[in-house]
Write a structure and sequence with these properties.
The N and C termini lie far apart (about 90 Å). This protein has a domain at about 1-35. The protein contains two helices and 38 strands. The protein has helices at about 5-25, 270; strands at about 30, 35-40, 70-75, 90, 95-100, 105-110, 115-120, 125-130, 130-135, 140-145, 150-155, 170-175, 175-180, 185-190, 195-200, 210-215, 220-225, 230-240, 245-250, 250-260, 260-265, 280-290, 295-305, 320, 325-330, 335-340, 350-355, 360-365, 370-375, 380-385, 390, 400-405, 410-415, 415-420, 430-435, 440-445, 450-455, 455-460. Mean pLDDT is about 90; it is low at about 1-40. β28 and β29 (about 370-375) form a beta hairpin. The strands form ten sheets. A four-stranded antiparallel sheet has the order 3-38-37-36, with no helix packed on it. The chain has a four-stranded antiparallel sheet with strand order 4-5-6-7, with no helix packed on it. Strands 8-9-10-11 form a four-stranded antiparallel sheet, with no helix packed on it. The longest helix is centred in the first third of the chain and has 23 residues, at about 5-25.
Length: about 475
């Protein structure tokens, strides 16, 4: 039996032994019954070469979450190289038209209930005009359907197939004609019968056409990318009845305005030829052409200077005509002009500071606000035209798609949610879970928004506040 004193001695011996073992361990060696062993080295986390966290927003915006009224499956084309310049889903007449199982289907926008379906293996492209849905069959032949019933009105016997290097396709419904674009080739179909009226090509463009097409007073305007000593945009005019080319002008962009028999268009060629690095002077030239003949009837010059010292950077920005007002980005400001009246050395009516930061491009004028889009991130910001204050409609995740209807801004975000923001107050209104990373345009009809997420459509009733 151990006495109390023996137990105290034993505790001191054990304590000393543990201390020696601890010291031995820290030295990397332990002794056990006379044997000596080396401990394996401890595992240490390998530091990253670069570690960067994206502090997009430190907190999630607290806002009411709305439950979808309905959800429906739809074909997804996010991972495919679809070159059609148009839309694969349309919301009109209180209906949603989309593709499911490679068929064109119509659904009730309020309930998501399917109304009708048409076709099979259709090209994922449709346009709507005056109660008619126009699309393209698998063999690229245009067709027309009654939007209410889905009944086929006609299918053309002419295919849009053109063997070119540019397969930009688009359908444009104008008055009594359905125009189809494939690269630099233009087709004109009778909207009532689907019969081909004419087909024409711009050979100088070598297939490189844009999706711009505008009809006015018996003339069709289109733009093309034309290569030569310099590559630039070209404006061309064609006779509506025959498709015969009437005139073209190298370096001219699409029409800013067509009025009183004149086409007003920006001259981009003169800008390409300017010595922008040495001279601070900048200008936008707007030429006026006779719509039918292409005769130059006059020119306007809007001038400004860029600040700083040479060499100057190329700073030619956006030009935008909104009703009777012309807006031109000029270095660090936006200038507003009255487009209905012009005189030499015309001064702007007022100017506004551009938003702070890089990559902002003027996109639209909404409710006395200059709306800018960021060409890198897809974000938008605004400048109040009443006082020049910069405002933002920020979310809590990177954006995949932004659409604006009236007072509602709809941010489809890359965290599986759509965030709605009031345009005038900049306050968030509601959130909807979409479960998608990528999104296409949010649509609106009959008091509903239709969210296009990956592989599905989501119908949500719009609150009265928006």
């Amino acid at each position: 039996m151990f006495t109390s004193k023996d137990k105290q001695v034993s505790k001191r011996i054990n304590s000393l032994a543990l201390r020696r073992i601890f010291i031995s361990i820290t030295a990397g060696i332990i002794t056990v019954q006379g044997a000596i062993g080396v401990l394996p080295s401890l595992a240490v986390a390998e530091p990253a070469d670069i570690s960067i966290q994206n502090w997009y927003n430190s907190s999630v915006i607290s806002v009411p979450e709305l439950k979808p009224t309905w959800t429906a499956q739809a074909d997804s084309y996010f991972d495919k190289d679809v070159t059609y310049s148009g839309v694969r889903t349309i919301a009109e007449e209180g209906k949603v038209f989309t593709f499911a199982g490679k068929k064109l289907v119509a659904m009730n926008a309020k309930t998501g209930k399917r109304i009708w379906s048409y076709g099979n293996h259709l090209n994922p492209y449709i346009v709507y005009d005056n109660g008619i849905i126009y699309g393209l069959s698998e063999d690229q032949k245009p067709y027309a359907l009654n939007a209410k019933t889905g009944k086929l009105k006609w299918k053309s016997s002419t295919s849009l197939f053109v063997d070119t290097r540019d397969y930009m396709k688009a359908l444009k419904a104008e008055k009594d004609t359905l125009y189809a674009i494939n690269g630099s080739t233009t087709f004109a179909f009778d909207k009532t019968t689907g019969n081909l009226r004419w087909k024409t090509n711009e050979p100088m463009a070598e297939g490189s056409g844009t999706d711009y097409l505008e009809e006015a007073d018996g003339v069709i305007l289109r733009t093309f990318y034309v290569q030569g000593a310099l590559t630039s945009i070209q404006l061309s005019a064609f006779d509506k009845k025959t498709g015969k080319k009437l005139w073209s002008d190298f370096g001219q962009g699409e029409a800013l305005q067509i009025k009183d028999g004149l086409v007003y268009s920006v001259d981009y060629y003169s800008d390409l030829m300017s010595d922008f690095q040495s001279l601070p002077e900048r200008k936008f030239i707007v030429n006026a052409f006779n719509l039918k003949t292409g005769e130059l009837k006059g020119s306007r010059e809007y001038k400004w200077k860029v600040p700083g010292e040479p060499p100057y950077e190329y700073d030619k920005k956006k030009i935008l005509l909104k009703e009777s007002k012309l807006y031109i980005e000029q270095a660090d400001k936006v200038a507003e002009y009255n487009f209905d009246t012009y005189k030499a050395d015309q001064q702007p009516l007022r100017t506004f500071k551009r938003p702070y930061g890089e990559n902002w491009e003027l996109a639209e004028i909404l409710q006395e606000r200059l709306v800018y889009k960021n060409t890198t991130t897809g974000e938008i910001t605004g400048v109040k035209m009443t006082n020049g204050q910069q405002i933002g409609w920020n979310g809590d995740a990177p954006v995949a798609q932004i659409d604006v209807y009236g007072n509602g801004i709809y941010r489809a975000q890359r965290n599986g949610t759509l965030l709605s923001i009031n345009l005038t107050t900049t306050r968030p209104v509601f959130r909807v879970k979409t479960g998608g990373d990528l999104h296409e345009a949010t649509l609106k009809t009959d008091g509903m928004i239709i969210i296009q997420a990956e592989g599905k459509l989501i119908g949500v009733k719009i609150p009265a506040s928006l």
